[in-house]
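Q&A FORM
Asked by: J.P.
Topic: structure of AraC family transcriptional regulator

PROVIDED:
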Amino acid sequence: MTRVVFLLVPQLHLLDLAGPAQVFSTAAAHGLGYEIGYVAEQEDVPTAQGVALRAATEWPPLSPGDLVVVPGWRSPVLRAHGELSAATLERLAAHHAAGGTVASICAGADALGRAGLLDGRRCTTHHDLQDELAHRYPRASVVHDVLYVVDDRVVTSAGIASGIDLALHLVAVRHGPAAASRIAREMVVYARRNGDERQTSAMLRHRAHLVDAVHRVQDLIDTRFTRRLSLTDLASASGVSERTLTRHFTEATGLTPLRYQQELRVERAEHLIAHGATAEAAARAVGFQDARMLRRLRARAGTSTANG
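REPLIED BY: S.T.
REPLY: Here is the structure written out as tokens.
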């Protein structure tokens, strides 16, 4: 039996807690041997979403095979938020020193930092907090724009929904990828993501604009990016001319509609390759005739990243 203990901090985000808790409770329902507990420094714990939670104030006995998870809390900055007593931080450090695993979601990484668990280790957190985490813990190596990082039984993840990815990874490590996939399927998770995948998908990175016509075209491309899409059809869907669409789309996203579709294809192909598909199979699955164009676009993206 593996005990999973969530350390609840005032103003925690519900999804930071509920996502991984659902993974482990579903695993328990499948007979994988998980027992879930919740501890805090006070019985009643307010959340960022306004629902109060109740937790035990006494820690259960922990063994090296057990897991402690610190969900994140509402925090535009890490400093002066998520306060925990020295005794609680010592418990986190002691569990790890005894051979146990300690994990965090989002701002929860700050608690691990205060416990000394990030020193000399790779870690990550929400993209809005990564620079501050690196400044607060200069002995840590903060990895930017990844979903989660595992380093010597210290597991840190990005914001909010990435806690599900982290928990599925831990289940896969202990029980195999088939068990994790079965849980993800039951939870209606769209895709199991690896830790080194980017925190924001291409479908989200280019949405920070207010042009309705461009959003309509992006909606269409998002759902049909594996198909051949003509500029004429896209312009018709947006209600503007081809020339106007290209101009608005480029101004809003920095890409032409074709380059946006290609970025979606490449990102999805890389996901398939990371999960065992060949480059040829991945290329065909996302709409390329063969892997040559995929390799060319991946090489161009790598060059752009290096130059950026």
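FOLLOW-UP: Residues 202-307 form a domain with the Arc Repressor Mutant, subunit A fold (CATH 1.10.10.60).
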